[in-house]
Amino acid sequence: MEDTISIKGKFVYYILLIIVAVAVLFPFVWIFLTSLKTPGDITCYPPKFIFNASWDNYKSLFTKSQAGAAASTLNFSRYYLNSLIVAGFGTLLSLIIGFGAGYALTRAKFRKEATRENVAFTLLSFWFGPELAIILPLYIFFNKFGLLDNHFALILAYQLIGVPFAVWMSRSFFSDVPISVEEASRIDGYTAIQTFWKITFPMVKSGLAATAILTFIFEWNNFLFALVIGGRNTMPVTTGALGFISYEAALWGQMAAAIILSSVPQLIIAMFVQKNMVRGLTFGAVKG
Amino acid sequence: MYRLEVKNIDKTFGKVNAVKNLSFNCKEGETVVLLGPTGAGKTTTLRCLAGLEELNSGDVLLDGKNINNFSPDHREVAMFFENYALYSHMTVYENMAYPLSAPNRKNEYDKKKIHARVQEIAELLQIDELLDRKPNQLSGGQKQRTALGRTLVRKPKVFLLDEPIAHLDAVLRHRMRGEMKSIFQKLQCTVVYVTHDYKEALSIGDKILVIKDGELIQLGTADDIWSKMNNIFVAKLVGDPPINIFSGTLHLKESYLKIELEEQKTDIIFKSKIEKLEKWRNKKVLLAVRPTDISISTIQNSNSITGTLSAIEAMSSSYEITVTDAKNKMIKVKAKKNFMDLLNKKIWLNINTEKIHLFDLQNGESIYHGRSL
Amino acid sequence: MQTDRQWHFFIIEKGGVWQLSKVKAQKSAREIENNKLKYFLWPAIIIPLCIGIIPYFTGIGLSFTNWKLALSNIRFVGLRNYIEMFSNPDFWNAAKVTISFSGLSLLVEIVFGFFVGWLLSVNLKGQAFFRSIILIPLMVAPVLSALMWKLMLPQHGVINYLLSFIGINAVSWLSNPHTALITLVIIDAYINLPFVAIIILAGFQSLPKEPYEAAVVDGASKLFIFKKITFPLITPLILLALIFRFILSLKTFDIIYATTGGGPGNVTTNLHLFAYINTFKYGQGAKSTAVVLILFLIIFIVSSKLIKRWTKATAYQK
């Protein structure tokens, strides 16, 4: 657009950008401050911006000795572990299924080209639907087989989030690899599978990594599946965080600490996907 | 036994019949050129030979063995892709070493041999300085040579080259045309070479197949294609500037033949065996004559066509002169002189009747060629 | 290393029945036929299709039954659930809430998201910092972001405190029936506006230089340039952001559940939440399934149309 902006123009832009940045960061900063406050400091009004900070809230998340009856059923470290297990293995499975389908969709010879797009769109359309449309039938099914509150069941259910995403993302990256390069490798003496690992895979490595990371983040962030199909044993941090506010007690400080701890890993990981971020978030539609 | 035999191969994509009943042979060490315009089916043919496309019918034999069902990695062919298809995540060295380190070839090449061979080919193609670079750090010409290197590094039975020099700039292309021939001879390659450029075909090919819409139009040597074209299509394809074509009626007189050119209102008279042309007595025919076989004169002659000298282009070793006749048809003449003084003046063109070609108006088949050069 | 393919598997139709057929490949050991990669590829495509299709079709079937949460004797009841749904005032309230919530959110997110996206595209030093800041709400779980706001919004919370400086009286934003919905729109915008912004940003960053250079040479005015060059090139991306936000906004659940639970009353109960409450509070399983499927149908039809339009708009780029 414009190569040179006036000093006055720059000033205005920076002011606007700072306003946006402050608006985005403020809640996090406030929550972080809250997580360092004692219960008394949290509820006093006007709100305190300067106070005596302590790590008590964080500590209490990991010890069982917590004030209040409701508190004894809260087990943050358990929630965290559940998130890791379900999102971790869920992502692994989603990637295996998703990348396979993504590659297949790109390279398979369909009798009609239209079928390729139709299949791809069908896979995508699973993501259109409100989650309850899938969860309610799954609920009956899992209930019958005693699979509610079961890690495996939850991992399986998470595939409905992860697979469409992994398919579309990987498809976008695989189709960037020109087929002539794979053909050249075949002629050079390599089988189809060898070609995939030696030629295709290295070319899409960074894209697949971004897909993996984003899939993990989406599955970690999921709430509704965990709410309905999960239970006390499988509760991840998303549903677990709600437990801090109940009729018995509102443990704001600990909830704040829980929120901070639950968000930090994603923020760090997100720094690594910067390059393919837009492509990832739009399911490969925008090459960014 | 032929190294490569192609027997009646046919390939259809949906409704499009890309390759129609094509057959040819290739001896060891021979270079066969598939020449034709875009969409003629040349690349498809090559891909069928490589195993990248399945034939609808027909057979491909390599040293007598039918390889129809062989996958590309077992066919012992090497292929050069028109878009180079370089492995962008590997260096030039790795690109060239890749075919040699294929698992099913582990016995033939160890690390030392690979290194020696890559070095040898890289020096031959003058890219030995670039071995550590990645494709995105190479110029167009360097990419082309890397791709060529990757193709030549193996010792397969047949080399398949798809428009190897088409995307180089004119100077480089001209140079490579000569180099390719010597490379093939040095490495004793059996080559099937696809191009749309007739100059490449004529200079590189031992045998040339002219292909149009999947069908074989003519199979012959460079000489056959140049002076004994069996179809007007071939005549139009080969030559720069393109051959001049006139339509007229063939009259057979007692001791000579006459072609009455309708538009130019001239009669071209020549001598030949009348019996052979009996079939076209009083029929309309096409007269084709090359720009080099027409001369410019200020004097009217028996075989002259009249026109205005409208343009002069200086080429590397001759002048290309455009003459416009009464009906605004442009006739091209190649000459050694530049005839500047005759620009925009009325002149006469003399056709060398020993070098004319006649073609049937309906099907373009050749009727008569003037005495050979 | 040679792999021998002895058998070919494929699905054929024999007398109207689909059968899995096995044919021994007439190949000798030395003739290799492993071109048929597509036979390996089919399972890769079919498995995800099945994983997705089965629950949806089960759901469709369920919506025609009398399934209640505790009921084990499931009977087919035809269209009764759908008819009852359309005569249920709570359903229509949920529909109204869905439309107002999503409509407002979309408006705010697209308009301001476009503005922020454009702002981030301006060539300034330090933009990298701002661009990474904007990603934060996208990475954090929506539920957690919503809880953050819940923490800040009570009567005596920090938001009210800050607003008092500009003369706005303290309101219990989330528990006041007049303000609950708007507050949710703002929370939703906080979480999702960055998404629109980064898409628009990507759009601005990939604008080709040539049309602009040509326009400058031709002496076009800035407004003209924006209207005739920038806007048409950015429109596909606006459309894309709209498609994503439309689909996701209509199925909003997390943030509403975590902050207001649908209340006060049913002021913030959208269709998705309505189905949930109906099932797990009132046990009306099949009826809720019907509600959800209607919602799905609406999302599917509208987004398919939008996607077709987007595909047309981007076809020239391919």
Q: Could you characterize the architecture of this molecule?
A:
The complex is a heterotrimer of chains A (288), B (373) and C (318). Chain A is mainly α. Chain A has 2 domains: 7-70, no CATH class; 72-281, MetI-like (MetI-like fold, Orthogonal Bundle), CATH 1.10.3720. In chain A, 69% of the residues lie in helices and 0% in strands. Chain B has 2 domains: 4-237, P-loop containing nucleotide triphosphate hydrolases (Rossmann fold, 3-Layer(aba) Sandwich); 244-369, Beta Barrel (OB fold (Dihydrolipoamide Acetyltransferase, E2P)). Chain C has 318 residues and is mainly alpha-helical. Chain C contains 12 helices and 2 strands, in the order E-E-H-H-H-H-H-H-H-H-H-H-H-H. In chain C, a hairpin with a 2-residue loop joins strand 1 (7-14) and strand 2 (17-24). In chain C, helix 3 (89-121) packs across helix 11 (271-280). The longest helix of chain C has 33 residues, at 89-121. Chain C is globular and about 75 Å long. At the A-C interface, helix 1, helix 4, helix 5, helix 6 and helix 7 of A face helix 1, helix 3, helix 4, helix 5 and helix 7 of C.
Itemize the secondary structure elements and their pairings:
The complex is a heterotrimer of chains A (288), B (373) and C (318).
Chain A: H1 7-35, H2 39-43, H3 56-62, H4 76-107, H5 113-125, H6 131-144, H7 151-174, H8 179-187, H9 192-220, H10 224-229, H11 237-240, H12 252-272, H13 277-281
Helix pairs in contact in A: 1-12, 3-12, 4-7, 4-9, 5-7, 7-9, 8-9, 9-12
Chain B: E1 4-13, E2 16-26, E3 31-35, H1 42-50, E4 57-62, E5 65-66, E6 77-80, H2 92-97, H3 111-124, H4 140-152, E7 158-162, H5 170-187, E8 191-195, H6 198-204, E9 207-212, E10 215-220, H7 222-227, H8 232-237, E11 244-252, E12 257-261, E13 266-270, E14 284-289, E15 294-297, E16 304-314, E17 319-324, E18 330-335, E19 346-351, E20 357-360, E21 366-369
Parallel strand pairs in B: 3-8, 3-9, 6-7, 7-8
Antiparallel strand pairs in B: 1-2, 1-4, 4-5, 9-10, 11-12, 11-14, 12-13, 14-20, 15-19, 16-17, 16-19, 17-18, 20-21
Chain C: E1 7-14, E2 17-24, H1 37-62, H2 80-86, H3 89-121, H4 127-139, H5 142-152, H6 158-164, H7 180-205, H8 210-218, H9 222-250, H10 254-259, H11 271-280, H12 285-315
Antiparallel strand pairs in C: 1-2
Helix pairs in contact in C: 2-12, 3-7, 3-9, 3-11, 4-7, 7-9, 9-12, 11-12
